[in-house]
Amino acid sequence: MTNDVFSQAVRERNAAGMTFNQMESMTWQVGGKEGSRSSAWWNNMSKWHMETPPAPKYVPGIAAVLGLPESQVHRLIAEQWYGVRPDDQVPRRLRSLLSIARGVAKIDILTLMDVAKTFSDKHATETELAELKAQAEDDVEDLDDDEDAA
Q1: Tens of pLDDT, residues 71-120
Q2: How many CA atoms lie less than 13 Å away from 134 in the CB half-sphere?
Q3: How does pLDDT run across 118-142, given as a tens digit for each residue?
Q4: What local confidence, expressed as pLDDT, does residue 1 receive?
Q5: How far apart, in whole angstroms, are the C-alpha atoms of residue 41 and residue 86?
Q6: In degrees rounded to 5, what are phi and psi of residue 72?
Q7: CA–CA distances in Å: residue 134 to residues 11, 63, 121, 137
Q8: How far is Cα 2 from Cα 72, in angstroms, rounded to an integer?
Q9: DSSP letter at 57?
Q10: Do 108 and 101 meet the contact criterion of CB atoms below 8 Å apart?
C-alpha cells in the first residue's frame, strides 16, 4: 500500500466535523450532478476502499470539501494512487530506462530489479576500488617525498 494521504485528508475533514453527507452536498454545489461524489464514496474513500483515483472532473468539488487548492488535490491523488510525490525526481539519464521499465510485466519486475542491483553493486565496487587506488598512489607519493626529504 502506498501512502494514503488523500484518504487521510478525507478522514481529517470528517474528524473536524464535516459529515459524509455534507461532503456530498458540497461537491454537488460545486460540480453539479456530473461533478458530485456520493456520501458512500466519501465514506469508502476515508477507508481507502477505492481502487481507482477520482477523475479530474471531480477535483474542484473535492478541493472545496477538503479546503485545499486543486493543485494540492492532484498531488494527493498522484501520491496515493501512483506513488509519485512532488519532490520525486528521475535523473535525466534514467528517464528512458524508466519508460522501458513501465512496459515490463509485473512478474518480471523482480528480475529487472536484480539486474539493476547487480549493476549498482558493480558500480559501487568500481568506485571504491578507484578511490583505494588513488589513496594508495597518494601514500606512495608521500613515502617518496619523505625519502627525498631525508
Answers
A1: 999 999 999 998 888 777 777 777 788 888 889 998 998 899 899 899 99
A2: 6
A3: 999 999 999 999 999 999 988 888 7
A4: 44
A5: 26
A6: -70, -40
A7: 56, 57, 20, 5
A8: 17
A9: G
A10: no
Q: Quick check: helix, strand or coil at residue 60? A: helix
Residue count of the chain, please give it. 150
Signed CA dihedral, 124, 2, 18, 61: sign only: positive
**Percentage helix, strand, coil, to 5, in the chain?**
75, 0, 25
The DSSP output letter for 2 is: -
Query: Measured between alpha carbons, how far is 21 from 106 in angstroms, rounded to an integer?
Result: 39
User: Angle at the Cα of 147 (from 144 to 150), degrees rounded to 5?
Assistant: 150
Which grid cell is 109? 519486475
Q: The cell 521499465 sits on which residue?
A: 101
Residues 72 and 60: their CA atoms lie apart, in Å, by 11
